[in-house]
Amino acid sequence: MNEIIKVKNVYKSFKGKEILKGLDLSVKEGECICIMGRSGCGKSVLMKIMVGLFKPDFGDVFYRDEQLVFDDFSKLRKYRRRFGMVFQNAALFDYLNVYDNIAFGLKYNYKIDKKEIKKIVFSVLDELQLTDSAYVFPAELSGGMKKRVALARALVLEPEILIYDEPTTGLDAIMVRNIDRLIKETQIKRNTTSIVITHDVNSAYRIADTIAIHSEGVIKELGTMDEIRNSKLKETRLILEGEIDE
Ligand SMILES: Nc1ncnc2c1ncn2[C@@H]1O[C@H](COP(=O)(O)OP(=O)(O)O)[C@@H](O)[C@H]1O
Ligand SMILES: [Mg+2]
């Protein structure tokens, strides 16, 4: 498989506190990679660097072989469009119904007429079994439904790479399985690369092609679940045994 995203020797500090300390990570096209680590270790910061929202203090990000230029805003915008992001809290607009939440990016990023937008939105609503909730407001949705709407909102823009930041946190076990299935189905059906930040070992086991253990500012270990499961590394053991603060 080809490399689609490469993070090379990236450093990032906030107020003198070093969060990423020479981190390397390579993501292969079409895979589902789960990034696991203790809370506060810098997973979301890494994600924001990968999508071009944060500029590293040092080090580089590559899309295929193209180096990301953080100071070239028009290139950066084009780059960011390759990504769809699904955030932990779903981050929906409370004052818009499901349909308008999903259509939002299409209306503002592209010149597409209303009819076409409707077609696209309803086909994704159908795919995610949300058709009946099209005109409902976020306050009336369950946690799992909100996450599906957040995924729908990302999918209508047809991203090449989907990034999920803690997509299952706060959901019950059944919902977690549903979201996991959805992540996997989306990866396979749409042939997207998926990057999933997760605390949940069971989720990672179900969905990951590759697992990356993020600790002390670097990726300490990378491998398949079977490889990671047999790891003797202390950080990896702690994460797999669920002894992480959350
Ligand atoms: N925009 C920011 N300004 C200052 N500090 C930040 C910012 N974003 C993240 N941090 C700090 O970086 C550290 C890692 O955060 P984060 O990547 O969110 O952790 P997590 O692994 O839980 O996702 C935390 O100490 C956090 O306070
Ligand atoms: Mg985070």
TrEMBL record:
Organism: Muiribacterium halophilum
Coiled-coil residues: none
Gene Ontology terms for molecular function: ATP binding; ATP hydrolysis activity
Ranges where the ABC transporter domain occurs: 5-241
Full protein name: ABC transporter ATP-binding protein
Superkingdom classification of source: Bacteria
InterPro entries (alphabetical): AAA+_ATPase (IPR003593), ABC_transporter-like_ATP-bd (IPR003439), ABC_transporter-like_CS (IPR017871), P-loop_NTPase (IPR027417)
UniProt keyword terms in alphabetical order: ATP-binding, Nucleotide-binding, Transport
PROSITE patterns named among the record's database cross-references: ABC_TRANSPORTER_1 (PS00211), ABC_TRANSPORTER_2 (PS50893)
Gene3D superfamilies in the record: P-loop containing nucleotide triphosphate hydrolases
